[in-house]
């Protein structure tokens, strides 16, 4: 007799694939914002790969022992792929934000504007509250010699570069730590497992904070129809499930290689994947994106995943509302 948990996992897996395929088709059949929609199509494939990964992990608990050579080799290959895919997904979300506000120049302007607003508030507070010592007043006078606009632009560029640097650091740390965690299963050194899990958790939290601060800077130019918070929930939620949750599981569960525990864990991951796929279908539907014009529309292709790391992102202008005629554009060749 077929186990009930196997039937449930098969149903969850097929539901995830069906939802992602629907999202894929809805964007691929009607292209009006190539940079954003190509990224969404890639996201759909990543969600499918995630569901496939969790389903295969569940099957491995039914067919082999987690400590077997075959299981560890499978986990290592998957961790390498995951370590590459997750940074691409993070850069893609950062790229979506920059494209939505109009390119890197516009994003830097918004970063600078946030610092100008902070400077005005701080300046007003300083005028109302006298400085305590002559040295403090002299230091403040030297700082005020810099033009406020120049200062805001400098700090805005600095923050923008720092947030991108956090993404770059995560793209290096994540695959190395993941492979080390898999290799440690041979030796099962508790202290090393705790250190690696802590690094994984810390790096994940750092990149989430960097993206949240980026959203805060760009928020004044993000339209409500873009559904920025649901999009963030989906992308970051999937990241937390793939890395943060697994690292926490390895940290807290002593018998993390036990077949029964892993079977339940991966079944729960498939449930979470289905929830994220449902939200993904809603938050990334074509109606949440605006059509754009300009040469930037023809610069991206489906297979060139590294294009989301471009810096600067070219300026992109909003055009008229999309029409079905746009779907015959030559841009479809790139998709």
TrEMBL record:
Membrane association type: Multi-pass membrane protein
Keyword Ribonucleoprotein in record: no
Main location (coarse class): membrane
Pfam families referenced in this protein's UniProt entry, alphabetically: Solute_trans_a
A GO-annotated cellular component: membrane
Subcellular locations according to the entry: Membrane
Protein name (Swiss-Prot/TrEMBL): Aste57867_20077 protein
Organism: Aphanomyces stellatus
